[in-house]
């Protein structure tokens, strides 16, 4: 697998597994991953939350870890990156309000570079206006946003993922094996 330079845009109360697992997994196969958050610099941290499925009508949320950022948001030049990862959790809800973040997301679609988004990451995709005509999986509560953004919501099992062009999406962290496997394929194209 050739080494790619991957940007991960995350923020406070990102989902713990959806941030830590892809960050570590991508680096373990030789990729460089820069994790950034608006208004934060390399060495800062973001709070994570652990979302679990315990039989309630929605997920439960528990405190996670502090996730260390390894790049400074203000220094990022998106044209230097080969791919983008958008973790879920609550971070996409507020990140989608940041014009610089939205512009970064659009860049990866304008240049047809691989993008992997999981769970609530679809909120950021919808805000960036990149879902028109695309198949997109996400946490089920994001279905209205995917559809309002003219995407086709893919209601798939929680441990599966879907690829449409340069985009691979999944409902939640139980899909990591399928989601990452499909993202690895995109990274090799």
Overall geometry comes to globular
Largest sheet: 6 strands, mixed
The percentage of residues in β strands lies in 25-35%
Q: CATH superfamily, called what?
A: Class I glutamine amidotransferase (GATase) domain
Radius of gyration: 15 Å
What share of residues is helical?
A: 25-40%
How many domains comprise the coordinates?
Answer: 1
Helix and strand content put the structural class at: alpha/beta
* Topology pattern, helix = H, strand = E: EEHEEEEHHEHEHEEEH
**CATH fold description:** Rossmann fold
What's the mean pLDDT score?
97
Q: List how many beta strands DSSP finds.
A: 11
Oligomer: single chain
Note the gap between the termini.
11 Å
GO biological process, one term: proteolysis
Organism: Marinomonas rhizomae
Protein name: Protease I
Domain DJ-1/PfpI: 4-182
Summarize the structure in words.
Keywords: Hydrolase, Protease. By secondary structure, the protein is an alpha/beta fold. It has helices at 16-28, 91-95, 99-110, 121-127, 143-148, 176-188; strands spanning 5-9, 14-15, 32-36, 45-52, 60-68, 83-86, 115-118, 135-136, 152-153, 162-164, 167-170. Strand 8 (135-136), helix 5 and strand 9 (152-153) form a beta-alpha-beta unit. It contains 6 helices and 11 strands. The protein has a single domain, classed as 3-Layer(aba) Sandwich (Rossmann fold), CATH 3.40.50.880.
Provide keyphrases for this structure.
189 residues, alpha/beta, Rossmann fold, 6-stranded mixed sheet, 3-stranded mixed sheet, 30% helix, C56_PfpI-like, peptidase activity, DJ-1/PfpI, Class_I_gatase-like, hydrolase
């Amino acid at each position: 697998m050739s080494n790619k330079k991957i940007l991960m845009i995350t923020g406070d109360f990102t989902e713990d597994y959806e941030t830590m697992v892809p960050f570590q997994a991508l680096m373990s196969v030789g990729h460089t991953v820069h994790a950034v958050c608006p208004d934060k610099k390399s060495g800062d941290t973001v709070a994570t939350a652990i979302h679990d499925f315990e039989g309630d009508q929605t997920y439960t949320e528990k405190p996670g870890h502090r996730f260390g950022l390894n790049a400074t948001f203000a220094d990022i030049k998106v044209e230097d990156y080969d791919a983008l990862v958008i973790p879920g959790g609550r971070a996409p809800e507020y990140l989608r309000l940041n014009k610089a973040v939205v512009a970064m997301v659009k860049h990866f679609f304008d240049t047809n570079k691989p993008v992997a988004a999981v769970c609530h990451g679809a909120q950021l995709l919808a805000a960036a206006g990149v879902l028109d005509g695309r198949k997109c999986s996400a946490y089920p509560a994001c279905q209205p946003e995917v559809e309002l953004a003219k995407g086709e919501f893919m209601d798939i099992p929680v441990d599966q993922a879907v690829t449409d062009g340069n985009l691979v999406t999944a409902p939640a962290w139980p899909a990591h094996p399928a989601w990452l496997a499909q993202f690895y394929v995109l990274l090799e194209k």
